[in-house]
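Teaching soon. Invent one.


***
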Amino acid sequence: MTASLRTPWLESRRAAWRRRAQQLGELLYVALGDSAAQGVGTSDLDASYVGLLAARLQRTTGRSVRVVNLSRYGARVKDVIDEQLPQLAGLTPDLLTVTAGANDMRRFDRDEFGAEVELLLGALPSHAIVADLPCFHFGPRELDAVIASRMIADRVRAHRLALAPLHRVTEFRRGWGSFPDFAWDQFHPSARGYRVWESAFAGAVTRRARALS
């Protein structure tokens, strides 16, 4: 995606989610996060992991679902805290998912990252479902992602929140066979890749849905 095309495309995507938020539903699903939560890599909102989880929630509960997607392209953990949590304050979600931290791997500082994750988790409702980081497959960012994922998992458990094991399900598919899991940029998930991401949340979302049924 070139710089000249990126901003209009991203604004179009955010506008599509805003329109989706106007649709009524008996249950409210709120998504926090970065470009993956926006569904970058697929043209269909319903093929994003947020769209797939909304469908899972509706299918399991038999109730309609309104989706409010507060995520933003390029968001780091601090951006979720500063920009997205204030918007969450006026909402009472029945389901809340969080995917953040992948963009922090561009400049990973353990102490800073740990403090920000702790601050974020402390502000979430008790039923929030938080993902660790996706597998970067190779290189120094993957080494950092392993460390960061363990930090997130430990803190999620300490806060007694639900963990979506995103790193494990994406690492399991590491190798040339995972090529179709990625979009044209070989970074963001494709529609097939988002089905893999959805599988990381599936167990926790199904349990939450049953509690709401």
About this structure: Residues 191-212 form the longest helix (22 residues). The chain has eight helices and five strands.
